[in-house]
């Protein structure tokens, strides 16, 4: 009996030292979790979008407008420089945990593809379009001529390629086909998609503050994280190197689905803190702290409101569907103008931990690759009642000024009216309008 107990105990003991570490490793390298916590470098969450919309049981969609960000892209020159620096530092470690750092290949991120859409980024956007096309097939079936579709992109290769991929997916199974013309807007004339264009006041008010604010938070909060990695790996990593490691992890994961390299040495706390670092940067860059950020969306909101009103009045020239293929600087200023996910404090290095934990603005949800804001003009079945519904990356949201997600048209119109009292040209050139 004693022998039997000892043998059983030994098996359990052995199991604990062999299987459990594998389970922990599996959790640490889980792509699904990692990809949801990469801030503005997070891939689109296709599962959140789903393949059906319950609203269609009670309402018909009379018009749909979508403003979206491009798909996954390659890093820029500055990001690549940081990636190489971190990889070189980690490669000097004698800890076998980071032996993979010696195999880091900068050519995986070619210089001639800086900021360009990746192949999987194109597929990502195609899949979004394909799923949305099926989800809203009834509205899609009403498109009988290309003039009923407004299809616009900023004049950048990554947005043009994203736009074409989305349209190819959305109209794949339609009677009209996917050969929908894409209109590009040159930067010199763009006031509705690439929103920092033609706005000198933006640079004056915002300037370098987004990165400065982010670095202030990293310098204040990340020293313990850097010390932990230094102790574990025997290499000298600064607080900003920890964030650069996360950034490298983000590109490795979003482009190549690699989570067993740079991602593998980061703790859950590293991810959560880096998410906030991204949020500090992007809220300062395109959202609430600077009023100019929301005011840049003046013409965009006016165009959206006009197209909705034309559809409400059933004007023949009102588009059935409108697509604007853009950037973070398209989606976030629009969300800010509408008051979506507006916190009662500014995201800075000095925010309390409670504020940080409970914030609404999160780039991992609001500004992923492929993120979008959708406007639906709804008609309640069996009535003439019209409503507006706003969705953020396919998740319904209650617009400030509305009591619920399905907002009566007149209530929506009243809520948006103050947002139309602006002159973008004057604002962007230093005026007060």
TrEMBL record:
Disulfide bonds join 249-263, 402-407. The chain crosses the membrane at residues 6-29. GO terms for cellular component: plasma membrane. GO terms for molecular function: acid phosphatase activity; bisphosphoglycerate 3-phosphatase activity. CDD domains: HP_HAP_like. Keywords: Cell membrane, Disulfide bond, Glycoprotein, Hydrolase, Membrane, Signal, Transmembrane, Transmembrane helix. Pfam families: His_Phos_2. It is found in: Cell membrane. It catalyses: 1D-myo-inositol 1,2,5,6-tetrakisphosphate + H2O = 1D-myo-inositol 1,2,6-trisphosphate + phosphate; 1D-myo-inositol 1,2,4,5,6-pentakisphosphate + H2O = 1D-myo-inositol 1,2,5,6-tetrakisphosphate + phosphate; 1D-myo-inositol hexakisphosphate + H2O = 1D-myo-inositol 1,2,4,5,6-pentakisphosphate + phosphate; (2R)-2,3-bisphosphoglycerate + H2O = (2R)-2-phosphoglycerate + phosphate. Its main location: membrane. Its EC number is 3.1.3.62, 3.1.3.80. SUPFAM superfamilies: Phosphoglycerate mutase-like (SSF53254). Belongs to the histidine acid phosphatase family. MINPP1 subfamily. This is Multiple inositol polyphosphate phosphatase 1. It comes from Circinella minor.
């Amino acid at each position: 009996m004693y022998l039997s107990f000892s043998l059983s105990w030994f098996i359990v003991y052995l199991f604990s030292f062999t299987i459990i570490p594998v389970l922990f490793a599996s959790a640490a390298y889980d792509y699904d979790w990692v990809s949801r916590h990469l801030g503005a470098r997070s891939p689109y969450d296709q599962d959140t979008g789903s393949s059906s919309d319950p609203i269609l049981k009670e309402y018909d969609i009379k018009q749909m407008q979508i403003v979206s960000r491009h798909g996954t892209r390659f890093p820029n020159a500055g990001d690549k420089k940081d990636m190489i620096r971190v990889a070189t530092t980690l490669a000097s470690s004698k800890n076998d945990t980071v032996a993979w750092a010696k195999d880091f290949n900068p050519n995986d991120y070619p210089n001639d593809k800086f900021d360009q859409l990746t192949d999987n980024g194109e597929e990502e956007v195609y899949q979004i379009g394909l799923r949305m096309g099926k989800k809203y097939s009834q509205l899609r079936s009403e498109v009988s001529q290309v003039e009923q579709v407004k299809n616009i992109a900023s004049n950048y290769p990554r947005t043009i390629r994203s736009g074409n991929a989305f349209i190819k997916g959305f109209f794949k199974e339609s009677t009209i086909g996917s050969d929908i013309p894409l209109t590009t807007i040159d930067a010199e004339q763009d006031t509705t998609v690439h929103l920092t264009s033609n706005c000198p006041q933006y640079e004056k008010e915002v300037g370098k503050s987004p990165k400065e604010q982010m670095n202030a938070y990293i310098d204040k909060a990340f020293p313990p994280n850097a010390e932990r990695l230094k102790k574990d790996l025997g290499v000298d990593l600064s607080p900003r190197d920890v964030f650069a490691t996360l950034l490298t992890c983000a590109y490795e994961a979003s482009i190549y689905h690699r989570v067993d390299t740079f991602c593998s040495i980061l703790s859950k706390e590293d991810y959560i803190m880096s998410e906030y670092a991204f949020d500090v940067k992007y809220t300062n860059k395109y959202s609430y702290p600077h009023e100019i950020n929301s005011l840049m969306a003046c013409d965009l909101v006016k165009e959206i409101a006009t197209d909705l009103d034309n559809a409400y009045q059933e004007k023949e020239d009102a588009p059935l569907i409108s697509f604007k293929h853009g950037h973070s600087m398209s989606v976030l200023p629009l969300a800010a103008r509408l008051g979506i996910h507006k916190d009662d404090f500014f995201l800075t290095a000095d925010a309390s931990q409670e504020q940080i934990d409970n914030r609404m603005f999160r780039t991992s949800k609001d500004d992923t690759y492929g993120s979008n804001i959708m406007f639906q003009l709804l008609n309640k079945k069996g009535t003439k009642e019209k409503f507006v519904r706003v969705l953020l990356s396919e998740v319904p949201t209650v617009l400030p000024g509305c009591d619920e997600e399905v907002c009566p048209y007149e209530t929506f119109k009243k809520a948006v009216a103050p947002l139309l009292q602006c002159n973008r040209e004057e604002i962007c050139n230093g005026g007060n309008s």
